Amino acid sequence: MSRRFSPPLFFLFFLCSTPLILTQLNDDPTIKTMHDFSGYPLHDPSNPFKSSDSISNSLSVDAQTLQKQIDELSTFSDAPAPSVTRILYTKNDVLARRYIKNLMGLAGLSVREDAVGNIFGRWDGYEPALTAVATGSHIDAIPYSGKYDGVVGVLGAIEAINALKRSGFKPKRSLEIILFTSEEPTRFGIGCLGSRLLAGAETLAEALKMMVDGQNISFLEAARSAGYARDEDDLSSVFLKKDSYSAFVELHIEQGPILEKEGISIGIVTNIAAPASVKVDFEGNGGHAGGVLMPERNDAGLAAAELTLAVEKHVMDSGSIDTVGTVGILELHPGAINSIPSKAHLKIDVRDIDEDRRNAVIEKIHNSAKLIAKKRKVTLSVFKIINQDPPAQSENSIIKAMEAASKELNLTRKYMVSRAYHDSLFMARISPMGMIFIPCYKGYSHKPEEYASPQDIENGVKVLALTLAKLSLS
Ligand code: GLV
Ligand code: MN
Ligand code: MN
Q: Which of 5, 205, 255, 272 fits as disulfide partner to 235, beta carbons 3.0 to 4.6 Å?
């Protein structure tokens, strides 16, 4: 639906602003109270909005404008359409952030940014002293990816707030949208950088003082070029206190095929799988591709190739479909056809819903790396676990709110595990957490073919809006 103002809503809003008529309406048994639509008791008997009609019926999402915004945001990209590449603190990232801040302002939110560029847009509730309910996601995009990953949870959140405002809803707890900095690990190798810091990652805050990207640009220099971390090397100002929010809910495309295959509209995430990433370097002597005979070689590239196959084997041997492993980066030095690789660099991504099983796989990969290095007479100069995060669980009360919201909207739903990681994984450390998934075409993600239909996005935004409304009143 693309209605901005519906006559009945406008009429209702007018009535709500007239206390005398409101008192009369409150006596009318045909009018539903906020309690009716929220499912939660009202604590404030003088709430002027308690005579609103059922919000699930009056929510109108402007799917057309939202799609236009998704398309516009995708133009801030370092890759030609339909690919999107948007890397932390680059010019396009800064422009895209400006685009979002502008929309937050237009939605009437008060906007603030922290030292690493997490952006917060707040709609004050009528009891602003209560802890707020938060939602949000990311807008950075890995090289040659699509335009929906993360974006649906940011632009969709702004539209959810707009829809709630249009419906006449007034939040009790404040509602806050968060745009998280660098959910993707592309530039500095750390996924969920912004949300990790919000959750109080002290070792990361310390490490960022010295961290450099592939071009040897330091994190702080890059952040400053984007207007952040101006006068501070100490990023601990980003940390949020535990329980800063009463709830955090993220809307995201599924990034898997299940919802589409089963024809289900809404995924209610119960758990987020535990991600880990490992950096490996092998070093050999290199040499001339013609001159050095095969028995004389110590080829770092072959060691990397053998370890790549070992990753696949150990993952498959775990015996569970939930264990996955990927060698997403494999770089050879000097990278010439007629030169035996003297250095090989790999980054390995291993995930599982079972943390111990994932850790056992990493241990086996480490042993293989040592054996391969010995056999091929190369040096295993680096085997570094970059991150080894525990899984996260959604909070029961938020699962219930998401479920009730999708039921009231007559949307089919299914409990599911998130195999991708999300900022929610880290928000769960400081707040009760929940996630809403929507279907995406063939489960495609992290590639240009990524697609979610306007109808599925509209459904997700409605469920998000109604869930936020419920949580705001709880
Ligand atoms: C997030 O983008 C992930 O890799 O799961
Ligand atoms: Mn992603
Ligand atoms: Mn994402």
A: 205
